[in-house]
Design brief:
binds pyridoxal-5'-phosphate, Ala_racemase, Ala_racemase_N, Alanine racemase
Length: 379
Amino acid sequence: MITATHRHAQLIIDRQAIYDNVQNEIKRLKKGTDLFAVIKADAYGHGLLEVAKITKQAGAKGFCVALLDEALALRQAGFEEPILVLGVTDPDQTPIAANHHISVAAPSLAWLQQATPFLNKDAQTPLRIHYAIDSGMGRIGMRDISELQAAVKLVREQRDAFEVEGIFTHFATADDPNPAYFNKQVAKWQEILASLDEKPRYVHVSNSATSLWHAKCNGNMIRFGLAIYGLNPSGRAISSLPYPLKPAMSLTSELTFCKQIHAGDSVGYGATYTAKGDEWIGTVPIGYADGWRRDLQGFKVLVDGQYCEIVGRICMDQLMIKLPHEYPTGTTVVFIGRSGMHEITAQDVAEYEHTINYEVVSDFMPRLPRVYVGLENQQ
Ligand SMILES: *Cc1c(COP(=O)(O)O)cnc(C)c1O
């Protein structure tokens, strides 16, 4: 996909914020607990390689990604840290992971059985695996002790194919103020974990929410994702944080056009907005094909420290806003970030769209350039 560098619309990524969020979390961790930076989905839209570099500088000991391709991109860029693929890797592609020293989740006994012949044939080194335990997330993982025991037995018989590096589970409600389901998962996890006679190098359960609010559950590694980017995994449900999270992403553009319209004049496809009197309307070159969704019609942006409503339907590449008065083309328009006394956050956008901040930041398309600021000397 083409990145539009000749258009004044960009995601600005504050390296210092990412660095500080990671360091603040590392300071809270018990000695011997490693932070792995979760940088799947292009680092939640913030840029895979750049975020890998910053989080490593800040003390991350490894990386988690969702897909084998994301792990391979890190290896190709020269990162030698441990990398764990959290999703299900195709059994026939496990030799690729093994040969690049990429660790993968082992989601079931059947998966181990399916991967074994491929590894025996094509892997030059054993595949590092983390047993995935489904303690209640209902996504991937082994669900009972007997399956795990059978997996352990298979892996012990297949030492050339597998090397056990970790065991983990994932919580469904760590961001919920009500701990009932969380506690149920913890109990199930502990019961399954206790059935292992030998613990692997990494025992881990914590996403951002778990480490922020249930740190006593952390094993000796955490999978720290959303909070790296300065966003609260609970949205607004749990506002108390052990340290202030610093949002790393802003989205800004500028006016490309400004005009006055009059009573009865309409704006945009479907003519859904009609002026009641004289109004100044600005045009901004961002649209739904950038990931600024069409249902954000009626939401606000910031111009010169003032909230301005998005009027008319959002187009694929442009949208219109109502200005308090005339502004010259080139005037900055803030979609996410600060202007004057006000701030629009990814959380604000998420609430208007009835979704979560995770989706807002990871939805921005590659067409929008990522511009990195801060920590200038650490290029
Ligand atoms: C995405 C993911 C994480 C990171 O979650 P955050 O809420 O972003 O911290 C951790 N573990 C697994 C298994 C994941 O899929």
